[in-house]
Amino acid sequence: MSTVLFVIYALAASGGALAVVLSQNVVRMAFWLVISLSSVAGLFFLLGADFVGATQLLIYVGGTVVLLIFGVMLTSSGPYGTIKSQPAEVVQAGIIGMAFLALVASTVLSVNWEANEVRLAHANDHAEHGHVHEVSEPESEQGYNPEESGNTTRSLGTALLGVRFDKDLSLESEDGSNHGHTHGNHEVSAGYLLPFEIVSVHLLVVLVGAAYLARAKRRVDVENA
Amino acid sequence: MENVGLEMFLAVSAVLFVCGVVCMATKRNAIGVLMGVELVLNGANLNLVAFSRYGSLGLDGQVMSLFVIVLAAAEAAAALAIVLAFYNNHMTVDVDQATDLQG
């Protein structure tokens, strides 16, 4: 079932992206962009990232694409106005794009990711614990953070507030002690409170700057108009 | 989901990334260039979430993809304001006409 869903979403995402490249009308490009982004949100849901998928639907499809369509409406010179590229340029871009896709895809598919994950886990374990520590499975975080089954909203929220329950609680439960603070040798994992604040200030600055840039000020040009 | 591996998601995100790069390079409409940027950021997002699911990245990949989504929205707003200012001055959104700074 999920394989069928993956095939559908993957084909829709790739086909939508290809149609964005191939279509010449800007409104049709926006439509295919909606298809592609929604399919990527479906892929996020398949990957168990429910909050990221919902955010993708809300912000990208509901916000950014609507913003782009407003931009199309405010800047189009006619009802069917398209700015065409030259056919030779399209052919060149197609050839270069196929070559680039072959390069990227062959590079990505030729890496053995599982072996790299195992080696990375061993290297991290040797770097953090100098003494010999039983390497259990790094994916065996039971209980609090079932990433495979979704339900990531609370973990994401606490991570953005700087508290990593998804990492710290599972560490203590591996030791079998309920209150790990009495040892004092557990380092608390790093959260994302400072990047969260930086991003919020960045959003405020960008919105003020965009409102300043796009304010209604039309320069009256006598020789052009 | 057992027979859909990490490589399939990476292949899909590679397709998205390459389509976005080609869209950025070939479109002469400035809004089309912005759509290409969105496609590229989506390919990167799909990579991050796929590694968060299959790798040992845990929840960090999803947090990173949330930041990418927010920054993409901010980037679209700022770039659209710039495009509108350019349209107010030149009455076109053709990026080939944006040659005022050429010496």
TrEMBL record, chain A:
Keywords: Cell membrane, Membrane, NAD, Oxidoreductase, Quinone, Transmembrane, Transmembrane helix
GO molecular function: NADH dehydrogenase (ubiquinone) activity; oxidoreductase activity; quinone binding
InterPro entries noted in UniProt: MFS_trans_sf (IPR036259), NADH_UbQ/plastoQ_OxRdtase_su6 (IPR001457), Nuo/plastoQ_OxRdtase_6_NuoJ (IPR042106)
The family this protein is said to belong to: Belongs to the complex I subunit 6 family.
Function as written in the Swiss-Prot or TrEMBL entry: NDH-1 shuttles electrons from NADH, via FMN and iron-sulfur (Fe-S) centers, to quinones in the respiratory chain. Couples the redox reaction to proton translocation (for every two electrons transferred, four hydrogen ions are translocated across the cytoplasmic membrane), and thus conserves the redox energy in a proton gradient.
Listed EC numbers: 7.1.1.-
Topology within the bilayer: Multi-pass membrane protein
Location(s), subcellular: Cell membrane
Gene name as annotated: nuoJ
GO cellular component, one term: plasma membrane
Transmembrane segments: 29-48, 57-78, 90-111, 192-214
Protein's name in the database: NADH-quinone oxidoreductase subunit J
Catalytic reactions on record: a quinone + NADH + 5 H(+)(in) = a quinol + NAD(+) + 4 H(+)(out)
Region (Disordered): 129-152
Pfam families hit by this protein: Oxidored_q3 (PF00499)
Record-linked SUPFAM superfamilies: MFS general substrate transporter (SSF103473)
This protein's record includes keyword Cell membrane: yes
From TrEMBL, chain B:
Subcellular location(s) of the protein: Cell membrane; Membrane
Main location: membrane
Pfam short name (any one): Oxidored_q2
GO terms for biological process, alphabetical: ATP synthesis coupled electron transport
EC number: 7.1.1.-
Catalyzed reactions per annotation: a quinone + NADH + 5 H(+)(in) = a quinol + NAD(+) + 4 H(+)(out)
The name this protein goes by in its record: NADH-quinone oxidoreductase subunit K
Organism: Thalassoglobus neptunius
